[in-house]
Amino acid sequence: MNILTKKFSTKYNSAPFIGIENKDYKPAILSLMEEAKLEIEAITSNLDVPSFENTIEALEFSGQQLGRATSIFFNLNSAETSEEIQKIAQEISPLLTEFGNDITLNQDLFKKVKAVYSTKDSLNLSTEQQTLLDKKYKSFSRNGANLNESDKTKLRDIDKKLAQLKLKFGENILAETNKYELHLTNEKDLAGLPEGTKEAAKQLAESKEKEGWLITLDYPSYIPFMTYANNRKLREQLSKVAGSKAFKGDDLDNQNIVLEIANLRFERANLLGYKTHSHFVLEERMAETPDTVFNFLNELLSKAKPAAENEYATLEKFAKDLDGIDRLEKWDSVYYSEKLKQKLFSLDDEQLKPYFKLENVIDGAFVVAKKLFGLHFEEISDIDKYHEEVLTYKVTNENGNLVSIFYADFFPRKGKRNGAWMTSYKSQFVKENKEERPHVSIVCNFTKPTKSKPSLLTFNEVTTLFHEFGHALHGMLANTTYPSLSGTSVYWDFVELPSQVMENWCYEKEALELFAKHYKTGEVIPMDLVNKIKESATFHEGMQTLRQISIGLLDMSWHAKDPSNIKDVKTYENEAFKSTNLFPDVKENCMSTAFAHIFQGGYSSGYYSYKWAEVLDADAFEYFKQNGIFNKDIATKFKEHVLSQGGTENPMTLYKRFRGQEPKPEALLKRAGLIK
Questions:
Q1: 3.20.20.370, 3.40.50.1820, 2.40.50.140, 1.20.1050.40: which CATH number matches 3-146?
Q2: Contact 201, 213 (CB under 8 A)
Q3: DSSP of 270-302, one letter per residue?
Q4: Is the pLDDT of residue 224 over 90?
Q5: What is the pTM assigned to this prediction?
Q6: How far apart are the first and last CA of the chain?
Q7: Which of the residues 124, 296, 462, 667 could staple to 618 if both were Cys, CB 3.0 to 4.6 A apart?
Q8: SS3 of residue 122 by DSSP
């Protein structure tokens, strides 16, 4: 019997990773699709008058086992993939897309949903039920239910192509990341690198039976090299390789895929009656329209650009005075920024890393969650993992009741894509008066332990851990009835609020003292280092803000305009970057061909949401600061009105219920040092 096709007979109903073989996925998913189709058929053939219960709720809870099986499969395709898994993904993605279209384009089903929707004012629904009904109706109307048969066929073809192209886009980036190694045999080439980085590079070389040292494009290898390596030529080489991923005109090239995706999305939006893909996407976001996004980004640009230009000029002069560099290039940026930061604040990551042992930082995140939300984390070993490095926890509340199962996966591997993300293996919901608690996971790519040192995190890695943990809390503390409204199932420009607000605790003395302890001596991080962290928090904030704006504008330029006349990806990208450029262009490099957020993930027309949510998070944390960063009343309000509510109501309604007012952008601009 295929383990994926039935409710899991595991502890906590957790994913039975050990019992699943790759060959199980496709037959299980095909079988579960057939089961789900029968559930849909039962709804459409029901002769009773369509009601919220027999139509909307029945639809909401259909295909649940299919959802669990696909979440396991696609999560592993990101965190622990292989050629075999990628091949299966290419085979089943179009089938799942077709299945999704079979539902949204099912005329009999839509008639029943429409019948319930047309009587919604007389149904006496709760707020959450009203939201679910609106969401279900829109999932049909926004995805082709009102199209004629010919256009429905076109839509199906577009969606099938998009599913395959997105997968191929990601596979090419992963292949590019995995195939490159900078093999160094002369120790002089490692001058400037911290001992821990050198040791990790040597260990990697040894693991591949090579002499010397290996530097790769995985972040814990790439970032320290770009930050500390004195050899400018090698920094240039590494930077150009990283910046040219899937932009070499070979069989891993993504240029045509980018153009195809952009054009198919535009065509799809037009087919559905929208001007552009951005108009389609943003209808279901807090921003609502492309104009709002452009106005938001351009307003930030007007504040950030003067600061960024000043910072750039200062950095260029510093590099010239220090090393006679005439023109600051992209491969110089982080190297000289780090040197300037050390000079201005007498602070660098190597001073901080001994205080940020991974295990201590994890415990710190847990203690912060306990103080704020009453959560208790207990490491457990009685559930399956998909890789030996994954940590598993049982999360309970103050009464000892199960809140969530939590997976954490911290180190780079060949089968894991770069970056950091939170995901879910099981949603929270209530069905037939029985509550199902969520299973959430965070996946990162942090510095690995070496033979002589534990995993010591850079401060950036510390904030990344807290960021993903904030997403995880949003998933864990969900308290809704319906799975599609639970946890992080919220408007995309609201989803980053819980993650970004958690980063703020990393800068506070009261929080740092809980976990920032020297890995050898146990000494708490000295106050002067805490002060330096705070003082340096806005270092190069203008340049960083400008970079985020530039990426947001690139995303919008691909999706808020007609892309049909774009002939060259690089030329078009340069045009999009015109207003935000600081560094000279590198002709070998292209960002779009490796911009996984928008061409593989779900951020198309949504990258602006990082800055949008920063406005919310700065405003929210100011509320904590005014009342104490561990104020239980404020934390409870945040839990009750934001974290637990998922997508049950309009996000601004939820935010105002927590904060008592709309967010003010001044808090962000002040925190960033862009206004006094």
A1: 1.20.1050.40
A2: yes
A3: HHTT-SSHHHHHHTTSSS-SHHHHHHHHHHHHH
A4: yes
A5: 0.93
A6: 66
A7: 667
A8: helix
Give the model confidence (pLDDT) of 385-430 as tens digits.
Answer: 999 999 999 999 999 999 999 999 999 999 999 999 999 999 999 9
Q: Mind listing the pLDDT tens digit for each residue in 340-381?
A: 999 999 998 889 999 999 999 999 999 999 999 999 999 999
**CB neighbour class for 591 (10 Å; exposed up to 12, middle 13-18, buried from 19):** middle
Which residues form the catalytic set? 468
Encode 487-507 in three state secondary structure.
CCCCCCCCCHHHHHHHHHHHH
DSSP H helices in 432-568 = 459-476, 496-503, 509-515, 527-535, 541-559
Q: Are 125 and 67 in contact (CB under 8 A)?
A: no
Nearest alpha-carbon partner for 377 in 361, 394, 364, 392 = 394
Give the model confidence (pLDDT) of 107-152 as tens digits.
999 999 999 999 999 999 999 999 999 999 999 999 999 999 999 9
**587 Cβ contact partners less than 8 Å away, ≥ 6 residues apart:** 570
The answer to whether the CB of 376 falls within 8 A of the CB of 397 is yes
| Predicted confidence (pLDDT) at residue 676 exceeds the cutoff of 80 | no
Q: What is the pLDDT of residue 543?
A: 96
Q: What is the DSSP letter of 421?
A: E
Closest Cα to residue 519, out of 463, 453, 460, 448?
453
The amino acid present at 40, given as its one-letter code, is: I
Structural domain boundaries of the chain?
A: 3-146, 180-243
The CA–CA distances, whole Å, from 144 to 59, 61, 273 equal 18, 22, 10
Number of H helices, E strands in the chain: 27, 9
